[in-house]
Write a structure and sequence with these properties.
- The protein is of the alpha/beta class and 197 residues long.
- It has a single domain (7-194), classed as 2-Layer Sandwich (Nucleotidyltransferase, domain 5), CATH 3.30.420.
- 40% of the residues lie in helices and 21% in strands.
- The strands form two sheets. Strands 5-4-1-2-3-6 form a six-stranded mixed β-sheet. Strands 7-8 form a two-stranded antiparallel ribbon.
- Helix 1 runs parallel beside helix 3 (89-108), helix 4 packs across helix 6 (161-178) and helix 5 runs parallel beside helix 6.
- The longest helix is centred in the middle third of the chain and has 20 residues, at 89-108.
Length: 197
């Protein structure tokens, strides 16, 4: 997969229109675009136009069979990564929007859609907490980019929280493409997190 994979998009999906969804494009191992969309319609149009190979989304891509968690969520919890319960209203809205994206991409493109979890990714990469401001986001961006030998042509000086989380999602997609990832696999779900060397 790694030799053929060229376009990877990370999506930090919001639960409703009006609230920003971040996106980040890695093209040929170079971070080439990063930004936000305020509506699902425009985000989906961008993805369909781009026709990426992999889309890594910060959202559950399905509902639990019962209770607040799926098998893969419970695996995360065992490692202290604390995913939110999926029976919360906000999470239900998020899942609905993620499913719309996945179904459209699977129907109209050859994109592989994977689920990821930025906070879990940061922990797996050795960070104890999320960055709290522009300065810390820029610092983390540089460290993580170097870990995976990624080039960049984007301005990382004023990354928003949503853009930074989308970058982490894109890194998870890139790590998946080169086989440097950890998989949390359940009966009805799979979560992909990047692993550093």
């Amino acid at each position: 997969m790694s030799r053929k994979t060229r376009k990877i998009v990370g999506v930090d999906l919001s639960g409703r229109d009006g609230k920003a969804s971040g996106f980040c494009l890695i093209y040929n191992a170079t971070i080439t675009a990063i930004g936000e969309f305020k509506t699902l319609k425009y985000l989906l149009e961008y993805l369909l136009m781009l026709r990426p190979d992999i889309v890594a989304i910060d959202s559950p891509l399905g509902y639990p069979a019962e209770g607040p968690y799926r098998d893969c969520d419970l695996l995360l919890k065992k490692e202290g990564l604390s995913p939110l319960p999926l029976n919360m209203l906000g999470m239900q809205q998020l899942i609905r929007r993620a499913i719309i994206i996945v179904r459209n991409l699977e129907k109209k493109t050859r994109a592989i859609c994977i689920e990821t979890f930025p906070f879990g990714a940061l922990r797996l990469l050795g960070f104890k907490r999320k960055p709290r401001n522009f300065h810390e986001r820029k610092k983390y961006f540089g460290i993580i980019r170097t870990l995976f030998n990624l080039k960049s042509i984007v301005d990382a000086n004023r990354l928003t929280k949503d853009e930074f989380d989308a970058f982490i999602c894109a890194v998870a997609g890139y790590a998946f493409s080169i086989g440097k990832y950890k998989e949390y696999l359940g009966k009805d779900c799979r979560i992909i997190l990047p692993k550093s060397k």
